[in-house]
Amino acid sequence: MFTKQTGFPKGFLWGGATAANQIEGAYLEDGKGLSTSDLVAYKDPYAKGVVDNFTFNVNSSELAEYLAHPDNYLFPKRWGIDFYHRYQEDIALFAEMGFNVFRLSISWARIFPTGLEEEPNEAGLVFYDKVFDECLKYGIEPLVTMSHYEMPITLTQKYNGWLSRELIPLFEKFATVILERYKNKVKYWITFNEMNMTLNSLYTGSGILEDLVENKLEAAYQASHHQFLASALAVKAAKKIIPDAKIGCMINQIEAYARTTKPEDQLQAVKSNQLNMFFPDIQARGTYPSYMTRYFTENAIELVMEAEDERILKEGTVDFVAISYYMSHVTEAREDASELAVTFDSPIKNEYLELSQWDWPIDPIGLRISLMKLYDRYELPLFVCENGLGAKDVVSADGNIHDDYRINYIKKHIEQMQEAIEDGVDLMGYTTWGCIDLISCGTSQMSKRYGFIYVDQDDQGMGTLKRIPKDSFYWYKKVIETNGAYL
Ligand code: BGP
């Protein structure tokens, strides 16, 4: 009567993930408008002396300075890895690895250069037509993120990004246009990348200039409220336009562990995890969870909502919950409730875990724990749509890249996904982050590499852009060929 699932189910989706602003380049080509990500300058957070200054946020004077003197800055996301012109070669390499899914995002500013136009930019739409056709030629399903950390810069200048409710109809128009246009090519969609990361960066997550807001925490939740509504409307549109669409939400899943068995620390971990799951709680269940009422009150957060919002959220719940997973986090009891949200930079080290070269704790079992908890909570299919190791790769004298550390990292995470599946979790797929080397989101560095495919380009944008399969390329190919049996 009870038969345990062994190994990965048939039809499991194996592939890799990217984002438009980290790969495409061609930042002003074919009518594309400037996007918020085009104005993120290169920063090395680990260079001596600047660690404390490192921030993902942009303020209004920085923005004015960037716009007035662009030549004074390195903006690596403007070049990406030239996927815009090399997508055929790159997709052929993904096909060689055996991908049956490829996650990418659509740049809003390619379709609506300022976000305000009545009609979309046809040349922008044509580009993604070509990319999807190329994927489908090899039997690769595109998994499309509608909004991955960028928007037309005009929407930041005019409205201060997602702080304004005005963005909802503008996004709905964008979503409807791409759903209509690609309805016969794209079945898998994610509305917003890592919704919870607006708490970490108002600019990256929501296009907000942080010095223009008084209460940053309140701004983050108000912007999130607008994104929840936009996401729900996009889900509703997707169901109408593509009846068999699968459309999901996404968070950066950073499981919080209590530092000790002290009940106060345990309680803190419960609260931290609630703050993370608040996002899928709304997107999967369609209502604000009750635990947020106390949090909002105690943090002087007053959200502006309208009568119709409750209905919109209810009508736009997702089909699946997607996560990116890189690390876990350690927390302990503290006074300041506003500090509860999990972040990349946990001040408390977990003595059981090794760190990546960028000090991210490596915790494969944390992935299993996350999947088990999320599945218990939502009973919806899950998707691990980002996971991977950022590392400084070296091209050896033999011309190859021997990245056994990356193989080891991904292997351990796949093992834990398999365990989770055997625990009963319904997992749809796995797309490793940065399947081809790309520009890092948080640092704009090229040298923080995640790929199975090396791209010859340095932090200053110098290099031939030649693609070289790494050792991990051949390893992942075998993993996919055997549906995860070979690890
Ligand atoms: C996630 C983002 C990706 C990404 C990845 C790795 O938060 O969705 O866009 O780049 O993290 O982060 P980083 O590039 O900063 O190493």
TrEMBL record:
Q: Name one GO cellular component term.
A: cytosol
Q: Has keyword Hydrolase?
A: yes
Which BP terms in the Gene Ontology apply to this protein?
Answer: carbohydrate catabolic process
- What keywords tag this UniProt record? Glycosidase, Hydrolase
Mention one GO molecular function.
beta-glucosidase activity
What sections of the protein cross the membrane? Answer: none
Stated family: Belongs to the glycosyl hydrolase 1 family.
What PANTHER family does the entry give? 6-PHOSPHO-BETA-GLUCOSIDASE ASCB-RELATED, GLYCOSYL HYDROLASE
Query: What protein name applies here?
Result: 6-phospho-beta-glucosidase
Q: Which species is the source of this protein?
A: Spodoptera exigua
